[in-house]
Amino acid sequence: IYQEERKGVLMIPQKAVKREVGNKFVLVKMQNDSLQRKTVKTGIRSGRNIEIVSGLSEGDVVVIEK
Which residue did the predictor score with more confidence, 4 or 55? Predict the structure, then answer.
């Protein structure tokens, strides 16, 4: 079943997205190796990945906790 298709989107693993009090965020590794919490807005899900509509830029290094 074909549901939806979007081109040119930013996708990350769903397990990278955390939730706290209704907000979604990810941890991003900065150039000085510190971690910064960035609030994100998500879109469609595809398997194990989720679309990031806003809050991240291409090239951001997202931390995925095991």
Answer: 55
Q: Is the dihedral of CA 5, 6, 10, 16 positive or negative?
A: negative
User: If you write DSSP's letter for every residue of the chain in order, what string do you get?
Assistant: ------SS-EEEEGGG-EEETTEEEEEEE-TTS-EEEEE-EEEEEETTEEEEEES--TT-EEE---
- Selected residue with higher pLDDT from 57 and 4: 57
Rounded to whole angstroms, how far apart are CA atoms 3 and 31? 38
pLDDT tens, residue by residue, 46-62: 889 999 999 998 899 99
Please name which of 66, 61, 57 lies closest in space to residue 30, comparing C-alpha atoms: 61
pLDDT number for residue 65: 80
Question: Both tokens of residue 17?
Answer: 């997205």
